[in-house]
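Record TetR family transcriptional regulator, 194 aa.
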Amino acid sequence: MGSREEIVAAAAKVMREQGYAHTTTKAIARAAGYSEALLYKHFKDKTEIFTSVLTERLPALGTTLDELMRTAADTPLAANLVRLARITLSFYLESFPIAVSLFSSRELLAAHREKVMSRQSGPDVPLARVTEYLDEERRLGRIREDADLEVSASLLLGACFQYAFLASFEDREPPETELDEWAERLATTLSRAL
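=>
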């Protein structure tokens, strides 16, 4: 593993423990065993590190969506939705403790919002990507023509986010079997509606 990967791994650990708001680039560099100067050779700022943590160290929601877009026709709709719900649950369970501190201050949230939106990496991206995937399923004839895809994507993402919020609030790590069962129930409910 190179210095960049070690910095991202250290950032994920520090951000999980302290939240985004309380994590400093100095703390990340220290945890990685590097200087802050080296950190800035790889990353423009803390927001770029945060985005790298989300895309490289957390469950691969984006990669799963890429695969579903390519292989949707190879697997039944319900199975694809289970897979999507399960990875989304894992992603939110991992990212929620990091990202929640963004809401601790309006100024911090505004600054972060401006940076991620300018990089087209904000929380609207999963919604657009899931909507795009559902549109592919509709193109395959497996979703009704009149289905509201954006609302359906919002239901899936919102249900997973709510689950992660409650688990984080209760300070519990749900067992894999519970996550699998919940993803199955969510996918079954959503596929019936589509």
